[in-house]
Amino acid sequence: MLLIRCPWCGDRDEVEFRYGGQADVAYPTDPHELDDAEWGNFLFVRANPMGALTERWVHTAGCRRWFSVVRDTATNEMTPDIPRRRESR
Amino acid sequence: MVVDGHTSPAPDRLWRNPEPKSNYDVVIVGAGGHGLATAYYLARNHGVTDIAVLERGWLAGGNMARNTTIIRSNYLLDASAALYDHALRLWEELPEELDHEFHFSQCGVLNLAHTEQEARDARRRAFANELNGVDAEWLTPDEIAEVCPILDTSPRLRYPVIGATYQRRAGVAKHDHVAWALARKCDEMGVDLIQNCEVTGFVTAGDRVTGVHTSRGTIGAGRVGLAAAGRTSVLTDTLGISLPLQSHPLQAMASEILEPVHPCVVMSNHVHVYTSQAHKGELVLGAGIDTHNGYAQRGSVHVVENQLAAAVELFPIFGRAHLLRTWAGTVDVTPDASPIIGPTPYGNLFVNCGWGTGGFKATPGAGWVFAHTIATGAPHPLNEPYGMERFTSGALIDEHGAAAVAH
Amino acid sequence: MMSSSNPNRLNASVRSGRIDRTRVVNCTVDGTTVQGRPGDTLASALLASGTIEVGSSVHRGRPRGILTADCTEPNALVQRLDGCPEPMLAATEIELYEGLEARTLSGVGWLSGERDTARYDKKFVHSDVVVVGAGPAGMAASLAAARSGARVILIDQHRELGGMLLDGQSHISGHPATEWVGRAARELAENQNVRVLTRSAVLGCYDHNYLLVAERRTDHLPTSSGAATRQRLWHVRTGQLVLATGAHERPLVFADNDRPGVMLASAVRSYLNRHAVLPGRNAVVFTTSDSAYTTALDLLSSGARVPAIVDTRPDPPARLVEQARAAGAQVYPGAAVVATEGAPRISAVRIRGLDTGGALNGSPVDVSCDLLAVCGGWNPAVQLFAQSGGTVRWDPVVAGFVPLNTGGRSTRVVGAARGTYDLAGCLAQGFAAGAEAATVAGFRIAPPPVPQVDGDRPGARPRPVWAVPDESRPPEACTDHFVDLQRDATVADIHAATETGMRSVQHVKRYTTISTGVEQGKNSGVNAIGVLAETLAANSPGEVGTTTFRPPYTPVPIALFAGRTHGSLYDPVRTTPMHSRHEQAGAVFEDVGQWKRPRYYPRSGEDMHSAVLRECAAARTGVAIQDVSTLGRIEVVGSDAPTFLDRVYTNGFANLPVGRARYGMMCGADGMVLDDGVSMRLAEDRYLMSTTTGGAAKVLDWLEEWLQTEWPELDVYCTSVTEQWAAVAVVGPDSRTVVGRLAPDLDVSAESFGFMRFRETVLGNGTPARVARVSFSGELAFEINVAGWYGRALWDAAMAAGADLDITPYGTETMHVLRAEKGFVIVGQDTDGTVTPLDLGMDWAVSRRKDFIGKRSLSRPEMLREDRKQLVGLLPVDTDTLLPEGAHLVEPDASRRPPVPMLGHVTSSYHSAALGRTFALGLVSRGQERVGEVLRSPVDGSDIEVEITTPVLYDPEGVRRDGPAQG
């Protein structure tokens, strides 16, 4: 049971969250400019490192906000993704 | 040979522990079930024996040692049914062919339906199985109770069992012993099984791979096949190949040894758990993956808790069995939950990955087609649909989407 | 004197023990009555009664005896029979209670068919410092931490605090250690910030200091007593963790080391001092380290003879040798027990010299005995430490695997768990770690001073012997040198494993099954590693390494994990405000997500088929009513709401006028249909979106994800309002009359209240309502929405308003038929995650002008194939034949031999009252081109001929939508 720090609610148990995979995969400005391979990459390819991964979580059973953290996928050590955190509403 | 810890005076030699040579015709990365089966069929079907199977830890110590040993082929989609049923037919031959006991038991599998939509999906799958030549039956709750009397088919359940598909040819095998049986044959045919030899990168020349860097030095290779499961991305990342894989913890658990009580395999997606009783007598339970990526071979306890609650809901008599051990492996999952088996942008590098939770049951089938792919440089008809180009074209093999059946 | 039923019970003057001598407890083992005292375990009661033998071994049927006094027991495993039978419990762990009934087992338990009626519950708590283990180190840590004001939880497996202090005779500050234990226990009990959990095992130590603790609450009480929960599963999140988990003594491996009467030296000491039980009167002690000398002295002071202390070390500490000799024991240094005799209980041992190379030397000495106390050394209990991600290393000085780092950022290991066995050291480490942990947790405190003690001193270096050589046989033939007693696995088995080529301890474990029993290696693990290291000629057990330590630390009933999560509490049940009315009407319910929805309302004598025909007829010819409160509802509000909906729906919503509703479809990024529903525009900046019943939560998540992570610049807020609304669909030619009566202020005529419009009104009963003209059946229909509170009143009012028109409640089955007759799809039934809107023939809902989520995916090569499966209507040629849902369609001339190429499948199939025949919907390759073709559906060995048609079978012109002409 990971302990995840929601930037708004503080430390909460993993069961309150839903996982959102790799962070910072931007929706293409114009998807129709992408060829099929590029679009396929956008749809399906995500980083899968053994080590630090900047990833998204959403606090579904709390404030319902999305945020990202950096987690080491080998040790589960988590640190806030401060420089990249988006300003949410 | 070994039965339940009983050792006869003259044990089989299973494998040598050779020093790696400087070069092999084929290097297979990963001595799990798939790596071993690939080497076996390369030697058996294609006459290739100058093979090294490199293993970073101990042979068959990854998901091969951690799965719930379920074998079945009752998949919905043609491509899946063909591949898994090919595997099942090989399973049926292997006890004789490998001549090393691995307790393959065709005790049958029940896939339960708890909602009307699950029943529709299940029947669709069973009808498709019939047309694909895969044995399948649709059972009513009363018929289910006859097959598996300890399963609660009463309306007491929050989601009562309303039916199930039943594949009689499905079953279980003793995973470790399967690996040892394959390893023994590989070794016999001259394949070098090299443990404690971690592949850390590749030697490349243009669009070809000429060898692998390992913790025991560089080893040259004519062809390289990756069968590294959860670690595949770590390897392909070094070549700049981006595969649509995500590695997740997958947990399973076992009870103490009990007298036979559970006659078959039961899988439920809605009351999420799958259960069987091992040859030795332990109840073996598994279910879904942890949602987050992870290589720690350690999962979250709420996943275990949910599985056990599901088990007791379906099998009230499991309540007083004891949880003896929980464990986790690392499975690599693709967006359509079907594997990737085929060539890569490097002409002589081939991948077999993305099996998610379906790897064990496919072991011989995967080995068969991957060996063909490596030996001929082109996919076998059975793995043709499983190339990575499907993620560009959109021709997914989406068992997940098409019928939410746990693998 | 010893009593007749407890011949081995020591007099109180010799050993008081921690038992209540004023009371007798009766239990039954293998049909024989056994008496004990409160404070006994089943094992100590058996020993007091003179029984040491338990069930025979699993494979070889060899007699076995009680080996330990703790959770590492491999032999004394029993099936509990009183109450709900429970398999494989260690007799050493069962506290005796009146009426206990047990049967000894031989390595295999069984499950009864009896339903477990015991209750199990869970608690979730947070703490600043958790201390695991209440021996001297753990108690010291708890005292230090608790004095800081931190929230402390102390957890111990046993019924009493004190750990090894209860097994011995040491003194702290000049008083018996048990007095110190008592004072400490009181101090902790009186501190409101401290919680002490006894009879509680920490099962697992998970990421970020999350602990799972199993508390046995009533297992020590007679089965019939009380209504308290039997066991409780604690979920504990702690800031700091102190592991004072102690150590487990190892047995020794030698020929016939499995004979009843061979017992761990520490267990002997525990039975003597804790239970006042003398397990044997003529005891040989066989040891590799100092600790067993205390056992010898305790035996001697209890009146037993100790004819021999056999020490593997050639030069045991002179102090100990002197003490032993003075008390009457002969010490054999540099020696080993090489064989035992007995029938079956041990009656003699053979002692030989053991040279520095480990070979036997000298001539044998045979010594008769009825007990052999063995000490193969100690294994620090590193299980929890390793589970939490810690690494262990082999420490040659203490001859055990110890934590590599004992002072992590949030985990500290103290005492025997890190190989510190002297009492002063344990106390000092405990005080220091407790104070440090509290300080790091924000409660600054200095460690208390360590009191004077006279307990165990730092030991001399042990000399582990992994397998005593056999007198005649080579190691590979040592088939009676048992390494794992429960699994009947021997030194020969380990050799056999290595003969196969195995080198890894993981392989050897799996080949021999060593450490796979209920003790999970606590008893057998390190000995197996030691034997393997010797077999492989490794430098030390550390070179071989351990297998992985996995939760749970001790076995626990699966029911404990399930807790109350079963039956109706397995998953929440959601019901609508009208639910009681459906129950009163005799509805048969269907699970849709967590909702209970009426499937149909059978009248007496009706089955589903006839009820549905009746309900359908009412909707098509009169008036019918359905509870549609379960549909998901999301308010989408903000100045950018129109833009946002244009992006998430395949069709346009920005241009939807206020006061109107529109059907919308949404796709995943992969272009596959995700959900659908009708959304209303309430105001320029406000929409009310409806979703499918099962898709509501998923859609809300979906919207939030895009809003927050892709388009944070949009001014949009989404709020789930499903629970705030209750709604009914009033359907049929007479629905206008009913709704007119319900809402007298509303002009319900076709002219002023057009299709896909909605109006706000107040119903005749005073309830504010929103009425919409939407239809999922093709009939004239109204959807009336009211605040959830008024749901039942709305239902009652509608039923009353339509009573004279025989208004008929209908369920999901009728809804399915009605919509299918019109070719309306149900997402999730007629689609399956591989279907695009274009496959459904819904090009009209797919905008060409704007981008939307998933649009790019629709132009991927696979989506452009001409042979994609498309939605069609299916008419069995025989109009009475019902196609099974899920059946597949094949070419008329397709081969009957598998694999038969499949063209598509039946997604929905019904009898239609309105059409007077059966019909179905399906997805068929090139379906739109095939209209008019007849295909074959092979079902259970025969064929059903099916004509392909367009999906809209009823009222294709749509003339019924506005109802009968008025006037």
From TrEMBL, chain A:
The keyword Acetylation does not apply. One of its GO terms (molecular function) is sarcosine oxidase activity. It is an enzyme of class 1 (oxidoreductase). GO terms for biological process: tetrahydrofolate metabolic process. The keyword Oxidoreductase applies. InterPro entries: SoxD, SoxD_sf. Signal peptide: none annotated. It comes from the Bacteria. Pfam families: SoxD. Its EC number is 1.5.3.1. Keywords: Oxidoreductase. This is Sarcosine oxidase subunit alpha/sarcosine oxidase subunit delta. It comes from Actinopolyspora biskrensis.
TrEMBL record, chain B:
InterPro entries: FAD-dep_OxRdtase, FAD/NAD-bd_sf, Rhodanese-like_dom, SoxB. Its cofactor is FMN; FAD. Keywords: Cytoplasm, FAD, Flavoprotein, FMN, Nucleotide-binding, Oxidoreductase. NCBIfam families: soxB. Residues 26-70 form the Rhodanese domain. GO terms for biological process: tetrahydrofolate metabolic process. GO terms for cellular component: cytoplasm. It is found in: Cytoplasm. Belongs to the SoxB family. Pfam families: DAO (PF01266). The keyword Oxidoreductase applies. Its EC number is 1.5.3.24. This is Sarcosine oxidase subunit beta. GO terms for molecular function: nucleotide binding; sarcosine oxidase activity. It comes from the Bacteria. It comes from Actinopolyspora biskrensis. It catalyses: sarcosine + O2 + H2O = formaldehyde + glycine + H2O2; sarcosine + (6S)-5,6,7,8-tetrahydrofolate + O2 = (6R)-5,10-methylene-5,6,7,8-tetrahydrofolate + glycine + H2O2.
